[in-house]
Design goal:
This protein is an alpha+beta fold. The protein is about 40% helix and about 15% strand.
Length: about 450
């Protein structure tokens, strides 16, 4: 079994931050934005360091906000800050390419213990940094032995976002959905009456394009992993059993049948398609997370709700939303001393200054696990807190234990073929179970 952060402690700490009014939840890139570059080099009389910063950003949906924050920091300090944003689903590939360059990123990220295994030799020990001292809990530190190799910079939540107006028009409220069976009954009824209701489907398209497939091969796949780990009393494994893959099948089947489109076209459907369908009120339900707020906020804060992803597992009526982080900042220890210090100064400023914390809360919609955090205005974060307050158990982010990116890609391919009718569910099971053992062995020897 792999050594990893205690998820019980992680969520306990997350709950503590939430109760303090500054915690919300987590995510992955939800945009198909191509790689973009921004650089700021304005001078100042008060430089924080003599070096420079190059941040390889993971989140396309926050690119503009990071560019603006970098420019503000440069204007204030004179320290050049470059932000490059990897295209959706291309972060690892981009990172490998950029690390080979003479001007490599000084700041990058890993998604947890599995990602750290690939990059730990590049990680500066943050244990003595000002950033580390700002953490609200040590549970948000990603450790390699005694060294702090990474620090979570955002805590996020995902589930099934819904349009309250459309759900009400269909004759239902959130209280009617407390399990997979009730979710299916509501979705089936809405799908059957879609013309009457003036919509195209109960769920937005489950696009399997690279800009969207992570929602199913990673975030949805987290649920059967979570329940298997919970049943077996483990936090990682070298050989997943697939105990809850029938449950995975029934929720995926619901997504692709009670949908705005035919399952055979999902290979070409994008994340932007799903956003457009939801914002244009063509669908009631949309699986995504707190990070998607900026894409859908035009519907109005009072019109946005979020429910857990139910898969038919025992005890799911006590389940909350999926809360955690796969976003850990790492500082490149191969950078010059000046660039390392400039990078440490920059990220400390981001999480401790009024300008930085306001940008992360208001512009990015982040809940950050630091002492000076500003409460975000994102209403989806408040929904996450309501589930915790109601005594619901948050679902751990177990997908950080997935053995490799290749495992996710093979699962995504199997899901796409299954939806198109050119593959079987047995192929999905094989991709999930057999490839897990194979990829784990390749990654760990």
């Amino acid at each position: 079994m792999k050594k990893m952060i205690s998820r019980r402690n992680f969520l306990k700490a997350a709950g503590a931050v939430s109760a303090a009014g500054v915690l919300a939840a987590c995510g992955s890139s939800s945009s198909s934005t191509a790689a973009s570059t921004g650089s700021s080099t304005a001078g100042s009389t008060a430089p924080a360091a003599s070096g420079k910063v190059y941040y390889l950003n993971f989140k396309p949906e926050q690119d503009e906000a990071w560019q603006n924050l970098a420019a503000k920091y440069t204007e204030s300090t004179g320290v050049p800050v470059t932000v490059v944003t990897a295209a959706a689903n291309q972060y690892e590939t981009t990172l490998m390419s950029e690390m080979e360059k003479s001007e490599a990123p000084t700041l990058f990220q890993v998604n947890g213990p599995v990602g750290l295994a690939n990059w730990k030799d590049y990680c500066y020990d943050l244990s003595g940094s000002a950033l580390y001292s700002e953490l609200t809990s040590d549970s948000f530190a990603l450790k390699d032995g005694d060294a702090v190799a990474g620090i979570a910079y955002v805590i996020e939540t995902y589930g099934i976002i819904y349009n309250k107006e459309l759900l009400t028009a269909a004759g239902y409220t959130q209280d009617d959905i407390t399990s997979f069976d009730t979710l299916k009954a509501v979705a089936d009824d809405i799908q059957a009456r879609k013309d009457e209701l003036g919509i195209q489907g109960a769920f937005t398209s489950a696009g399997m394009d690279a800009s969207s497939d992570w929602r199913y091969k990673t975030h949805l796949a987290n649920l059967p992993i979570y329940y298997e780990y919970k049943a077996d009393g483990i936090s990682s494994t070298d050989a997943i059993k697939g105990t809850y893959l029938d449950n995975y099948k029934q929720i995926f089947d619901l997504y692709i049948t009670d949908s705005t489109c035919d399952p055979t076209v999902l290979a070409s459907k994008t994340g932007n398609d799903a956003v457009a369908e939801f914002v244009n009120k063509q669908a009631v339900f949309y699986q995504n997370g707190t990070w998607a707020y900026t894409d859908i906020k035009d519907l109005g804060d009072d019109n946005l709700g979020m429910i857990p992803i139910y898969i038919g597992a025992d005890g799911e009526e006590n389940q909350g939303l999926c809360t955690g982080s796969e976003n850990f900042w790492c500082v490149n220890n191969n950078s010059s001393e000046e660039d390392i210090q400039a990078t440490l100064d920059f990220i400390h400023w981001c999480v401790s200054s009024e300008e930085g914390t306001a940008a992360m809360a208001d512009d990015m919609g982040f809940v950050i696990p630091f002492k000076s955090a500003k409460a975000p205005t994102n209403p989806l974060n408040a929904i996450s807190d309501e589930y915790v307050a109601a005594g619901k158990t948050p679902v751990d982010w177990c997908f950080s234990t997935m053995p490799s990116e290749e495992w996710k890609n093979m699962l995504g391919s199997a899901l796409t073929a299954y939806a198109a009718g050119t593959g079987t569910w047995d192929d999905v099971v094989s991709a999930f179970v057999d490839n897990w053992a194979t990829e784990y062995q390749l990654a760990n020897g």
